[in-house]
Design goal:
The protein is about 40% helix and about 20% strand. The protein is α/β, with parallel strands linked by helices and about 210 residues long. It has a single domain, classed as P-loop containing nucleotide triphosphate hydrolases (Rossmann fold, 3-Layer(aba) Sandwich), CATH 3.40.50. The strands form two sheets. A five-stranded parallel beta sheet has the order 2-5-1-6-7, sandwiched between helices. It has a two-stranded antiparallel sheet with strand order 3-4.
Amino acid sequence: MLTFDDLLHRARSLAGDGRRRALLGIAGSPGAGKTTLAERLVRELNGDGDRWAAHVPMDGFHLADVELDRLGRRDRKGAPDTFDAAGYAALLHRLREGTDGEDIVYAPGFERVLEQPIAGAVPVPPTARLIVTEGNYLLLGTGAWTRVRAALDEVWFCEADEDDRVRRLVARHVEFGKGQEEATAWVERSDRRNAELVAATRGRADLVVRIPV
């Protein structure tokens, strides 16, 4: 079984001699631990004080609620067509290509309390040689999502015990404002469908990660 140190070594080696910027994607179903793993990798890689790695989550490309209402998709928030996949792909390609001397690139973030994307919330410094991005649909083979995969050097698929994953997901919804019954219903209705879609992409990953993070 792979240890965290194994993953750390593999992530570090992606950038090679550091002359080119590398992008690592971490895919997986909602609640599988993608963000926890990404944040820990970046924290450890930057442990000596250098901003050598940066974390750019997919969640910043959620469509705003007002746009989801206009499209009639608010009750499916979190499904593939409730994200700006083309915008996400464009940012990843920009980060991958880079430009010598380019200033900080700003990526959008996602505010869990508001449940809304926030523009310009994630700074990516020119010193970052490895970008770690994570999200549900990095391996989805339809529409603009194919351009997302094309921008990434590797994609790892993060999976977890199903009962633990669902329990964490319900707890997250409760933490950020839903009642227990509402959170459970949302996970059973919307998140379950999305999780099944994501699980079907597992075979496209370069590596399957199943370790405590």
